[in-house]
Amino acid sequence: MTSSYGLQGRAALVTGATRGIGLAVARQLAAAGALVCVTARDAEDVRRTAAELGGVGAAGSVADAEHLRALVELTVREFGRLDVVVNNAATNQPYGPLMDVDPQAWREAFTINVEAPLRLVQSAWRAWMRQHGGAVVNVCTEGAAHVGPHVGAYGTSKAALLHLTRQLAGELAPKVRVNSVSPGLVRTEMARFVWEPGEEQVAAGLPLGRIGEPEDVARAVVWLASDAAEWVTGADLLVDGGTRVRAAHDSGTYAIHDRLRTGFLRRG
């Protein structure tokens, strides 16, 4: 990262920060000079990641509103400020046709994917950002803009997160910028069932010829959180290897939807 990013000495809080996209974001924020607070469910993973980054952390579920308040308090207490919030923690459950979705599982998806980001931003706003300003980046998904097999709950909740991002951007300006990043298929554990069986076939269906890496998304998140994007708010930055433009690319069938269908059969 370059000094123009303006993150030196600033404090960032990243959810779902011990693996995948969240870990890559936390590492790149730290490399840019930020002080980082991390959270995830597993206490040992949180301890190890916080130690690696020279930051702090607390284990817990983002579905727990008290945990979110405690994270903000921890960050402000340890670093004296809270400049950046990255809402990365998410669930892709319940998986399957919407006609089969259990109402409780549906509510849990929205609690984690939509309500938790709002609650965390509310806490950060009250504790620091209302007076001092800051930046929020929500990790959404390329799939929020269209439909796909068996991911109706995930896609719908992420579409709500996308709208929440824009709503907050308007309400919190000019003090706080709020943006989102929408990844395509990325090499994470959550998406392993899509990319692992025959990755070459999946990658061949994308204009840029490969699936994403967590670092691809992290670079976009850090840019949006930084002073380099100081005149950007309410935006959704697509990081998808060309998924949305594949219809103009001579790539044959779209293997990702095939994997989502077969993944449902395997899980069933």
Automatic annotation (TrEMBL):
<protein>
    <submittedName>
        <fullName>3-ketoacyl-ACP reductase</fullName>
    </submittedName>
</protein>
<dbReference type="InterPro" id="IPR002347">
    <property type="entry name" value="SDR_fam"/>
</dbReference>
<dbReference type="GO" id="GO:0016491">
    <property type="term" value="F:oxidoreductase activity"/>
</dbReference>
<keyword id="KW-0560">Oxidoreductase</keyword>
<dbReference type="InterPro" id="IPR036291">
    <property type="entry name" value="NAD(P)-bd_dom_sf"/>
</dbReference>
<comment type="similarity">
    <text>Belongs to the short-chain dehydrogenases/reductases (SDR) family.</text>
</comment>
<dbReference type="Pfam" id="PF13561">
    <property type="entry name" value="adh_short_C2"/>
</dbReference>
